[in-house]
Amino acid sequence: MTDLAVRVKKLVSERLEAKQSPLPVVYEDNHLLAVCKYPFVLSQADGSSKLETLNLERMYIRQESERQGRPKLGNIYLVACHRLDYTVGGVLLLAKTEKTAKRMQSAIKSRQLAKSYIAITEANHLALAKLKAKEIEEGLYHLENYLAKDEEHLKARIWQASSSNVPANYKKASLTMRLLAEYKDAFIWQISLETGRFHQIRAQLANVNLPLLGDYKYNQAQAQKSTFVSPLLWAYELEFEHPVKKINIKLQAWPEAFCFQAYANFPYADYLAIRSNH
Fold first, then answer.
1. pLDDT averaged per 10 residues, the chain (length 278)
2. How many CB atoms lie within 10 A of CB 148?
3. Cβ atoms of 231 and 215 closer than 8 Å
4. pTM of the full predicted structure?
5. How far is Cα 149 from Cα 128, in angstroms, rounded to an integer?
6. Contact 169, 157 (CB under 8 A)
7. In order of start, what are the domains of the chain with their CATH numbers?
8. I need a labelling partner for 135 at 20 to 30 A (CA). Which of 44, 69, 88, 194 fits?
């Protein structure tokens, strides 16, 4: 277990002991619960002993109902509307009812759930120059590839040959990326997903020679020189129509000081703190 995973586990325990939600609540009503998932917490159980969002929040809901004198009996319905990778933190949306879950799944399939991320990559100026061909407006780039999941190595593979002869197991993946800043030898990007493929952001950025810092799976050369223990990727915003109230909902969660990476002197913390206040 990494030092960051240990710190996250300790923080979650402290929050539960203080009778707080184990993961910070971003939004809650009778239908939905959105939390700020920490890195090194699973979105849903995978059979391991790792911390897992749904069990943590069910535990808290039961604890709160007992504290209020209205104990919940039986199973507590709570499902993840989408997933975030184990090492990625940010806004995670959960459904409290089966009807809400079905409506959100339908919205996701029809691409009505907009997801935006903050990504920190190597400051590769040659790669940035080559991106000009994919620029759709100043500072905004569009990437489109065909991806397949490599089950053996748990990686996304990009089809590099002609797009007119793509195997059936490769699915279209597209995103836009806006350069927010060049800061302390890194590029800081806002990524907006147009599709939701396995490891899509990690694979597509690495494919244009702008790998995420800390992402050794898609850039093994970094392992020799980087101190980061996981990819610098954060799911900071969700926007969608509420499945019951039919109003537009925009949820944001900027990384807490320790949460993007648990380093005493995380080099990009001051920039992210400035952005979070705007």
1. 75 84 92 92 90 92 86 89 91 97 95 94 94 92 96 93 87 95 88 94 96 88 69 92 97 69 54 55
2. 19
3. yes
4. 0.87
5. 27
6. no
7. 1-277 (3.30.2350.10)
8. 88
